[in-house]
Each structure stands twice: as structure tokens, then as C-alpha cells.
Amino acid sequence: MRRTLSLLAAALTLIATGISLSAGAAPLPRSAAATSSAHLGIRHVFVIVLENESYDATYVHNPHPYLGKTLQRQGTLLTQYYATGHVSLDNYISMMSGQAPNPLTSSDCQLYLNFNGTTAPATLEGEGQAVGIGCVFPSNVKSLADQLTAQHISWRGYMDNMGNVPTREQSRCGIPTTDAIGRDDTQSATAKDQYAARHNPFVYFHSLIDSGLCRKHVVPLTALRANLKRATTTPRFAFITPDLCNDGHDTNCAGPDAKGKRTGGLASVDNFLSLWIPRIERSPAYKHGGLIIITSDESATSDATSCCGERAGPTDPEPGISGPGGGRIGTLVIGHCVARGRHDAKPYNHYSLLRSLEDIFGITSGGTDGHGHLGYAAASGLRPFGHDLFSRCPG
């Protein structure tokens, strides 16, 4: 699912001509200090991102039993959780940095281009939003990974199929190979390599690329099995991206899914989750304060609804293409302090997820609001996950 070619062409014209872009909306009010979640006892967080399905398709009418029934009995389903845009990449960027969609991230960055065509620092408006358009943000635009590194908290991105064909992308970090005009070679799957750079948010931040953090911390998914053997080798934060078949993006997949099938869609999601969730749940790290968050990038394109007072960024007035958001997707949370078999109707979105992760890991300084929250995760009144979700925690 992509923006129209005319929108992409217009965005490229803006970069090429250097047309100035208005900062737009007035600054957000300063948000209140974060409520630290350290007392929750959550030590390890595993985030798994699926693709392109509505809440109803994934959790209500899903005929595949593992995600459709089994996993829901293990945790709390956030029934009013919303994506922040369409298509894919803009949502990954939002959940890792609080940056709103712009015309190129909302086009899945078919061309792997620097933000505003340069690596010079971006102008940040009052909400911490980078003013301009492009894909790879300059080093002054930070991500959760930067925050964790600064706090000496271990993290890793685990990318399914990354490096299977080294001529398509790097085997560490996963920066895509490009042609003379910057076209991303990983935009579609091949029989041997179903990795997609647009589902790997870490390759879109110069702060991670130029410092070597991306190459050090973003690794093939195959590394996760060995890392799970000991709590000391399991990162505190693990961001897991299945490949284009395993995440449900493709159907009639170019290559095999986690169980050797090529069906794709929610059938392959079940195959992936039924293999990897038990591995995570058996790990020493998970047994002592582990949390699993299964979310999706976006709903079906026809659903552009939003929640939580979501605001558009400086350059993309309709993040949902035809509306204000990326639609209702739902999110399933399993693990420490979370009730089993429960539904939670409090409204959340990808910015809420980022704010919640910052709070869980005790990041309480810096960021857009001075209290550790980046971009729109610092929005006044935005709700992080609270005791409605962590209902089994003391206090």
C-alpha cells in the first residue's frame, strides 16, 4: 500500500528545489513528568510488529487459532489501539521516535533518501517534529534506541531474513542496496530474501547509522535463539520484525514462512508466532519480568481513523492518506503484571507505545518535554500504558 506516484514526485521536487516548509502548528503544552514504571518490575520487553490487518481481522474473525484464540487467553488485548498513519514505514518511525509521517515516509521511502536531501541538522518545531520531508533523519533526530544507549540499557533489533542476499542489504544493520537514484532494492520479496528495510526503523536514523550503533545492535533474527538462552545475553529491549511472509504482509509468498509454507497473511503470522512466542516464554529473561507486545503497523488502508488527539506533522496534513490516522489495529500484551484473557478499551496508539517504553525503562530526562519523551510521545494528555493494563502489579 503506497501513496500515489504524484505525491512522491511532489515530495522529491520539494527536496530538489529546497522550498522552505512551514513549522505549522503551535507548540504543544509541556507534558507532565513521566510516572516511572520501574516499580512494575518489568525487566525485558519484546515488541513484535505485524502488518496491515484491522482489529476485527486479527482478533475477532481470525480463523487461525494461535493468535485468534490461544495468545489472547494469555494476555490483555488493547481493543482501542490505533496506528498513526498509512503505509508501513511511517508507523515504525512513529513508534520508535515520535516523528509524525511525512510525504516520503508515507510512501514507504521507495527511494532511500536523506531528510531534506542532506545530513545537516533538521529544524525541530515545538513538538519535536523535524520540519521537512525525507527518509533518513539527521543525527539530531533521536530514537528510543538512542535513549536506551545513553542510559546503558541493552537493546537489539532482530530482522527476519536480513542479509540472506548480501547484494540487497547489509547483513548487519540492514541498510538497503540502492541504484543510482536511490531506489531501495528491498521493496519486494524474493524467494531467498523477504527482508524489507521499510520494516526496520533503525536504518532511518543517522544517529544510529553514523555512530555504528545500528551495525552493532541490529542483527538477523537467527541470533535471537542464542541470545534467549541466558538472561544476561537477552537484551532489555528487543524489537522483532518478521519477514514479508511471516508478518502477514504478503500472500502467496515469494519464499517460505517460519514453518516452510508460502501462504502468507494471518496463516503465516500464526506459523511465526507459534514458533517464536514459546521460545521467548521459555527464556530465563521472560520468566523474570518479561513483557511481550504484539502490535501491527497499520489497519487496512480504508480505515484512516485515529485516537488520542493525534496531530499531523508539519508536512503531511492527513497521515492516514484519506484521514487523520492509520486505523484501529488492536495490540496484545502478555507477561509480567498483565491479566490473562482480558480486554482493555482504553485508547492508545503508536505514540502511546513509545511513551510507555520510555517510562518502563526509566527514561525521565531529555526528549521533547524534558521528561524523557520524544516527539509526539511528549504530547500533553497522551496516555501511556497504566494500571488498566498492568492490573496485576502492586501499587
Task: Describe what this molecule looks like in 3D.
The protein has helices at residues 5-17, 55-60, 65-74, 89-97, 144-150, 206-209, 213-217, 223-227, 265-282, 284-287, 350-360; strands spanning 44-50, 76-82, 155-159, 218-220, 237-241, 290-296, 331-335, 342-349, 366-367, 371-373. It is of the alpha/beta class and 395 residues long. It has a single domain (5-16, 42-378), classed as Alkaline Phosphatase, subunit A (3-Layer(aba) Sandwich), CATH 3.40.720.10. The strands form two sheets. An eight-stranded mixed sheet has the order 4-3-5-1-6-7-2-8, with helices on both faces. The chain is globular, with a radius of gyration of 19 Å.
Shape call: globular
User: What's the tally of helices?
Assistant: 11
So, CATH architecture?
Answer: 3-Layer(aba) Sandwich
Q: Give the topology string: H per helix, E per strand.
A: HEHHEHHEHHEHEHHEEEHEE
| Name of the CATH superfamily | Alkaline Phosphatase, subunit A
Q: Between the first and last Cα atoms, what is the distance in angstroms? A: 44 Å
CATH topology: Alkaline Phosphatase, subunit A
Lateral strand order in the biggest sheet: 4-3-5-1-6-7-2-8
- Strand residue content: 5-15%
Structural class: alpha/beta
Largest sheet: 8 strands, mixed
